[in-house]
Amino acid sequence: MRRQGLIVGKLDAFTEVLDYPMYVVTTAAGDQRAGCLVGFASQCSIDPPRFMVWLSKANRTYRIARQASHLAVHTLRKDQKRTADLFGSRTGDDDVDKFADIAWRPSPHGASPLLDDACAWFVGRIEELIDGGDHVGFLLSPVEQSPPGPTRPPLLLLGDVQDLTPGHPA
Fold first, then answer.
1. pLDDT at residue number 167
2. What InterPro entries does its record include (predicted)?
């Protein structure tokens, strides 16, 4: 398959079998806050602990994150598709305050919004940015995390949100 003169699909057979966790990433810089649904993210080091989050260059959250010192990364339970839809199908450029109808509080580090109903979360200091093409990787060093929950609930996965329409162009 070709699109805009480029061959695409070289990873399709591999990625089509994956069903990885989805995350909501939030950030703030100055008086602006933003958040988006992210599928490209993973722990990438044990010692020191590091986590990489990839944000689309087309996303408002990316533009705010480039000015921020910290990002907050949230996991969602399988029953939180409404939250995934809010952060995945709407862009901040739509003049939508994604935080208006959801319980949240500012984190002590950089005031990244922390979603009260998230399954788990951590705040990471941005250590480095890595250009990966249409996404930029934010290498995070954890500085704060949610307390452990009593159980490990089923997480919201890619397969649970594939019917959502992305809020920004591909």
1. 65
2. Flavin_Rdtase-like_dom, NADH-dep_flavin_reductase, Split_barrel_FMN-bd
